[in-house]
Amino acid sequence: MIELPRVNPVGVTEVPDDFVRTPRRHSLLLRCFAAALVLVFVAVVLGTGAASLATWCLTSDAGTPFPFR
Fold first, then answer.
1. pTM of the predicted model, to two decimals?
2. What is the 3-state secondary structure (H, E, C) of the chain?
């Protein structure tokens, strides 16, 4: 049976004595590259969304967003 780690009164996880960490499947370089790709993808999605919204707001005749002022 698997022994779950305990948490001491301070809140720090105690690792069992026979705990063996499994090695990572992929290298650090490959994991960093994948993280960079995800960050670039998120930046492009947010950037194009913001640019598209700004373009629409600046070129449309929508008027003021707060007509009650």
1. 0.57
2. CCCCCEECCCCCEECCCCCCCCCCCCCHHHHHHHHHHHHHHHHHHHHHHHHHHHHHHHHCCCCCCCCCC
